[in-house]
């Protein structure tokens, strides 16, 4: 097994007094794609925000390439090579499409992704590069959000609810683009409500239920029954 | 002709008010911080300009070469050391802290420079004038207005054509997501305050050349600045310039009607605009 790029051990994430994650353990191998599934409120977004540094935790609870990052700020995590495509796209409304992409690349990390490469992946963005980002359709906005994260040339990319609120044809296009994105030696964590899609794109799957890991396994071997039990907590 | 003269003098006075307001507008636009000490920082800049020009024998405008970087450094340290700690979901802490800063600045200036009014000596520039179609225009007010237009244009250019400007706008849009781009918001806010106080230095020097000043006048400069920002529309720099001009014209036309009405006329126009257009005349449009 390749060396782990991300190790999460005993993660107890909190929003003030409210505890959202309880002792979450998770390992992601270098170059792997890991899917996280779970019902609304299971803690998926909290986990993503914790890895990205938007929720700060104990330093050793999250390690990136064996270096504790759990207590770092989001900007420090980003500079180490972790990028998040946040739930709901969350583009910068006062920036144009191209400016949103450029600000994604401001950390100056070297790698295969550039403005030109993002435009070749999503040609529609080049046509609309001068437009305000919020004037695009939901699917095009998701392309900007993905392109913005890629511009950072991350080693680990986190996709939070990548297909939420998008039309099926747009979801299909984005899922067609994903293998090309993660085949560049990048590791990925994908939060996805659509279990079939989550299993098809990933090598391992984790299911969260009420803040705890309720299932872990290889995406090719976990059964639908196991997932139903883990997802809904039905014995 | 006298009325036209009043309007033109008001437009030029508006340049000074726009200089008072530009820093406030920038800070509010980037970090939603209402800086109650802004007027006192303008007065601080005037005193630093006075001290520098007297000590080094420099023309007050040349003193800007030293005062603007000094104010920028003060702004960066103030933001990193104090103001960043007050920013959050609650609007009250930054208001209280900048109010406290205002009191401290006023008393420190009083202690150091006494309450005696001071004025900077800019030589012939203070009295030089040009005649245009029978109207005499002071070179100093013309220069002040030109500098205000240049500064607003430069700030606008920085905002929309540089990586720093993108960082300002992104952080203003969404602090959390901006951090995901590797932007340290504490530093972004520090740079914004540094830029705002460098502009404040220009405002302070022009104030000190144009009129006499003492440690207590910061409050009224803050009000003029606020009125210009709000008339123009929050977060819109060209709107702030327009707001300054409207305020200046209201004051000079008011003074033409009755010399005692100068300040009152400005406040009345401000209130009328606020009543009709609560977001100002040119609010920043996003989304």
UniProtKB/TrEMBL annotation, chain A:
> Which residue range or ranges hold the ABC transporter domain?
6-235
Which biological process, per GO, is one annotated for this protein? L-amino acid transport
- Protein name, UniProt field: Branched-chain amino acid transport system ATP-binding protein
Recorded family membership:
Belongs to the ABC transporter superfamily.
Q: Name one GO molecular function term.
A: branched-chain amino acid transmembrane transporter activity
Asked whether the keyword Nucleotide-binding is assigned, the reply is yes
InterPro entries tied to this protein:
AAA+_ATPase, ABC_transporter-like_ATP-bd, ABC_transporter-like_CS, BCAA_Transport_ATP-bd_LivF, P-loop_NTPase
Species annotation: Roseibium marinum
Q: Which UniProt keywords apply?
A: Amino-acid transport, ATP-binding, Nucleotide-binding, Transport
The record, for CDD domains, names: ABC_TM1139_LivF_branched (cd03224)
TrEMBL record, chain B:
Can you say where in the cell this protein is located?
Cell membrane
- A Pfam match: BPD_transp_2
Q: Name one GO molecular function term.
A: transmembrane transporter activity
Listed A to Z, the keywords are: Amino-acid transport, Cell membrane, Membrane, Transmembrane, Transmembrane helix, Transport
Q: Does the keyword Cell membrane apply?
A: yes
Q: Which GO terms describe its biological process?
A: amino acid transport
State the GO CC annotations: plasma membrane
Give TM regions: 6-29, 41-58, 64-83, 95-115, 135-159, 188-209, 229-249, 261-280
* Topology of the protein relative to the lipid bilayer: Multi-pass membrane protein
The similarity annotation says: Belongs to the binding-protein-dependent transport system permease family. LivHM subfamily.
- The molecule here is called Branched-chain amino acid transport system permease protein
Biological source species: Roseibium marinum
- Source taxonomy lineage? Bacteria, Pseudomonadati, Pseudomonadota, Alphaproteobacteria, Hyphomicrobiales
């Amino acid at each position: 097994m390749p060396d782990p790029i991300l190790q999460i051990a005993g993660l107890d994430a909190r929003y003030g007094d409210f505890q959202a994650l309880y002792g979450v353990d998770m390992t992601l191998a270098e170059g792997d794609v890991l899917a996280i599934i779970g019902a609304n409120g299971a803690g998926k977004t909290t986990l993503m925000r914790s890895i990205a540094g938007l929720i700060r935790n104990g330093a050793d609870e999250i390690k990136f390439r064996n270096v504790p990052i759990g207590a770092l700020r989001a900007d420090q995590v980003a500079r180490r090579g972790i990028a998040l495509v946040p739930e709901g796209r969350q583009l910068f409304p006062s920036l144009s499409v191209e400016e949103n992409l450029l600000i994604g690349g401001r950390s100056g990390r070297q790698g295969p992704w550039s403005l030109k490469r993002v435009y070749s992946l999503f040609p529609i963005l080049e046509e609309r590069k001068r437009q305000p980002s919020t004037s695009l359709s939901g699917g095009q906005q998701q392309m900007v959000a993905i392109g913005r994260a890629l511009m950072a040339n991350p080693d680990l990319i986190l996709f939070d609810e990548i297909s939420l609120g998008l039309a099926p044809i747009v979801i299909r296009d984005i899922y067609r683009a994903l293998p090309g994105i993660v085949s560049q030696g990048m590791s990925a964590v994908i939060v996805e409500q659509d279990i079939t899609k989550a299993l098809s794109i990933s090598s391992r799957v984790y299911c969260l239920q009420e803040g705890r890991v309720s299932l872990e396994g290889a995406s090719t071997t976990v059964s639908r029954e196991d997932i139903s039990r883990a997802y809904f907590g039905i014995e | 002709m006298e009325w036209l003269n009043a309007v033109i003098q008001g437009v030029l006075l508006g340049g000074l008010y726009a200089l008072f307001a530009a820093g406030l507008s920038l800070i509010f636009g980037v970090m939603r911080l209402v800086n109650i000490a802004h007027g006192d920082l303008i007065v601080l800049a005037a005193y630093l300009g006075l001290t520098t020009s007297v000590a080094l024998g420099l023309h007050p405008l040349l003193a800007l070469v030293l005062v603007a970087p000094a104010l920028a450094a003060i702004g960066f340290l103030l933001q990193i050391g104090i103001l960043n700690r007050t920013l959050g979901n609650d609007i009250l802490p930054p208001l209280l802290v900048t109010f406290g800063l205002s009191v401290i600045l006023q008393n420190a200036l009083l202690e150091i420079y006494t309450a005696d009014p001071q004025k900077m000596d800019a030589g012939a520039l203070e009295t030089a004038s040009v005649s245009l179609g029978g109207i005499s225009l002071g070179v100093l007010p013309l220069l002040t207005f030109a500098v205000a237009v240049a500064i607003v244009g430069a700030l606008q250019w920085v905002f929309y054509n540089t990586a720093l400007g993108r960082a300002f706008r992104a952080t203003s849009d969404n602090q959390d997501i901006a951090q995901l781009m590797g932007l340290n918001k504490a530093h972004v806010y520090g740079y914004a305050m540094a830029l705002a106080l460098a502009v404040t230095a220009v405002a302070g020097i022009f104030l000190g050349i144009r009129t006499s000043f003492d440690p207590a006048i910061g409050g009224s400069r803050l009000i003029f600045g606020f009125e210009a920002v709000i008339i123009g529309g929050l977060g819109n720099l060209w709107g702030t310039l327009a707001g300054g001009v409207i305020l200046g014209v209201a004051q000079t036309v008011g003074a033409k009607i009755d010399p005692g009405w100068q300040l009152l006329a400005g406040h009345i126009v401000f209130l009328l605009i606020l009543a009709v257009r609560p977001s100002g005349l040119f609010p920043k449009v996003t989304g």
